[in-house]
Amino acid sequence: MVALPDIEPVSRESTAAVIARQLRDAIMTGALPPGTQLGETDLAARFQVSRGPLREAMQHLVSEGLLRSERHRGLFVIDLEPADVLDIYLARSAVERAALLCAFRGDRDAVAATLEQNVADMAAAADDPAALSEADLRFHEALINASGSKRLVRMARTLLIETRMCLTLLQSTYQGVEDRLEEHTRIIEALRSGDEETALHLLDAHMDDAISRLLPGRSLKDGVVAAE
Q1: How many Cα atoms sit within 13 Å of 168 on the Cβ side?
Q2: What InterPro entries is this protein classified in (predicted)?
């Protein structure tokens, strides 16, 4: 039997994974706001676990870019500076454009039907900002999943968590849900009709609209600039 000295017990890995998922969800929904310091003693008590799996979970979130480590101070939830927001949408644009192109080469009607359900969920959640943001993200997640690319899905995972952090701020810039629904619906219509150029243009405009709302005066065409 081959010796595997670096393999840890499955139970510990499972505990760390559960902790990481709960912390990730708390960051994504704003329960742990940007800049929050994570104290090991408090969190270990709340999760009722030892510090070993807790540290493992937090280091995993550091590697995902959701926590930052400060020397002699500890771990903090990341702050999204203007350059970070621009970078998130720049990266998302690249990933989702690739996914949309894949969707055009697959079963367009099936993908469109899935996306239409996501838009219906958004409409149903019009009076619940948190549920609306979740449905909005599911639209983009469904588009990326439809690409069939495991790597695009993996690349998008952390981007969508960071996007959820942005949506908390973004939702306050809309007067109603109609604009958000229309932007998503027009992309679906272009996909269903096979109009690739229009669909890509609409996706770019959708990303740029988010940037202009979050960072007035900025555009994806500006590229990433130094944090202010």
Answers
A1: 14
A2: GntR_C, TF_FadR/GntR_C, Tscrpt_reg_HTH_GntR, WH-like_DNA-bd_sf, WH_DNA-bd_sf
Please give the structure tokens belonging to residue 186. Answer: 């027009």
20, 22, 24, 25: CA torsion to nearest 10: 160
Give the pTM. Answer: 0.77
Q: Return the number of other C-beta atoms located less than 10 Å from residue 189's C-beta.
A: 15
Distance CA 24, CA 58 (A): 9
Please state the φ and ψ torsions of residue 2, each to the nearest 5 degrees.
Answer: -75, 130
Q: Per residue in 16-30, pLDDT tens?
A: 889 999 998 888 877
Cβ count near 159 (within 10 Å)? 20
Q: What is the CA radius of gyration of the chain?
A: 20
| Strand pairing report for 37-38 and 67-70 | unpaired
Q: CA dihedral in degrees (216, 218, 63, 58; nearest 10)? A: -10
Element (H, E) at 110: helix 108-124
Angle at 152 between CA 150 and CA 154, to 5 degrees: 70
Q: Which residues contact 108 (CB under 8 A, 6 or more apart)?
A: 191, 192, 194
The answer to whether the beta carbons of residues 190 and 57 sit under 8 Å apart is no
Nearest to 143 by CA among 202, 219, 80, 88: 202
pLDDT tens, 111-122? 999 999 999 999
Q: What is the three-class DSSP state of 131?
A: helix
